[in-house]
Task: structure prediction
Amino acid sequence: MAGSPVSVDYSQAMNLSAVPAGDWLVVAPTLITLLGGSLCLMLRKNTDLQPKLGIGFLALLVLANFGLLVRVLDYGVISMVMGSWLPPFGIAFTVDALGATLSLIGSIVALCAGIYGAASVDNTGRRYGFYPFLLLLMTGVCGAFITGDIFNLYVWFEVLLISSYGLLVLGNDRIQLDGAVKYGVLNLIGTNLFLIATGLLYGIFGTLNMADLAQKVAALDNPASGTLATVAALYFLAFAMKAAAFPVNFWLPASYHTPNVVVSAVFAGLLTKVGVYALIRVFVLILPASRGYMADVIALVAIATLLTGALGALAQSELRRLFGYLVIAGIGSMLAGVAVGSTLAVSGAIFYAVHSIIVMTALYLAAGIMNLMSGSYDLRKLGGLYQKSAGFAGVFLVLGFAVSGLPPFSGFWPKVILVDAAFQDGRAWLGAAILVSGFLTTLAMGRVWIYAFWRGGPEGTPDGQSVAAAGTDTGQLSGAAVWLPIGILTALVVYFGLQPEWMLELSTQGATGVVEPLGYLRSVFGGEG
Amino acid sequence: METGVVVLIGLFFTVAVYLMLSKQLVRMLLGIAILGNAVNMLIFTNGRLTREVPPLIPDHLYMPVETTANPLPQALVLTAIVISFSFFAFLLVLAFRAYQELGTDEVNEMRIAEPENDQTPPQGY
Result:
């Protein structure tokens, strides 16, 4: 080993070839949002400029994510290691079809929320940083979808969590402080559990790179036993908390209805899905044996979550709380996919995540519009909206069909796949729970439509009469900023329902990439993977 | 030495869980602060404890000649400390604001977001 320091062979430790120009797209989503967030923060006093800058950067983010997805589809999984160190020493960003798809859909939803925010966030909200927080939230979300290092995943979780705190208390109402306390404390405990599990995993394997971990776990003689079972259980609890699965779901309906409706829309679309994504990443890619060992537990949790969500939705009369329970029911469907764990089931879970991101955001935005029209979120006080806008009534019906999983909209296909996968795996109860949950959701959404749209006016209005409700609209309803986002999202819901091939292909590719991770490992470690 | 530290970590976790089960928000926050420290020590111990051998490589060598301290857990812990400290600071301010606005720091009495006598949705058409 003795030699002069001049003859150091860097190729043993570093990647000496230059990174291909297109691969810089891997870090683009986090860079764009960080830059945009900082710029918006510096200019936060300029309330007219805020929406323009925010929407501009979010549009850039959508473009970057689209480019990234196209590149992943063309070249397979892309890896980039910070500082050009050879893995597993540097922090790796590894993008596969799963991460790129969710990142793209997530950024589209954020763009829609940014546009809606131009109408619904007042100047005070802008000054206190709605757009910086939204952009930094997207840094965390995209970073989590893109990273290939499990400690780095923890860091992105915290980035998105602290930005979500900022968004949640924006406005400083009593009800927001109440919701934020519960959301804040429980989510922080959840990420601490995640960190404990990561620390233990590092203690066992001495590495934090996901691809390296997957290899080392697969090389074990008995990969489901001992300490690893503890680690898997901790990860499951932590991500279940993040995803709001039963029985750790209570923070979600306690907090999601408190902030500005556009903030609720972003949260409902993105935050829980990052938890589900992490669950898929850790349990299907890194710890497949532990997933098999815990499959029954995950299936039970999935069934309980499906039913809690749907029954909870039936019992609510506050629109936003009702939709909060529907978010939980959707999480149950995705967990069902993780419980079964076959390529088919995981692809169903991914497709469902995409569907849920789009449709839940659209529903919350629709709730915002209903509030503008009639001045309330309460089913008892809503009514007569069909007369105000027949077109909007149709849009809401489409979203209701989609969230219930009825054809021909986007919720139908993932549910078909998940039920099919559950029956193939011999878990008839799981398939039945998905169907029952869909039925109960149909009831809940049907009731919303009957009371809010069909009925002539608020509770007590005689049949055949119509009472015009006094909305809180101060001119927002005539602006494009309110209608464009929900239009885009509904168009996507219809498109994925009528033309599901593209998304089916993407989610199958994403699922294959985590169930049989050869391509993922190759991309990080090179040919010998 | 590791056994001793592990026992200490266990104690930290016990205290943290006990405090977090309290109904008083301030105690829960203290519990969270202690939980954060317990996690940090857990990561540190998981990187294996060694006597004071700094991870330095002599001038003419590629790699250290003897077993050295593991520098990576220190980087991880440093990250986690910064994050948990900032979150603790935020939650402390949040709890104080909630106490000002809601007049209580007992979680059972914080029922504004979820009112106790919440009405059921309309039953008939």
The CA atoms of residues 23 and 106 of chain B lie 5 Å apart. Chain B touches chain A at residues 20, 25, 28-29, 32, 35-36, 39, 42-43, 45-47, 59-63, 73, 76, 79-80, 83-84, 86-87, 90-91, 94-95, 97-98, 101-102, 107, 110-114, 119-122, 125 (CB under 8 Å).
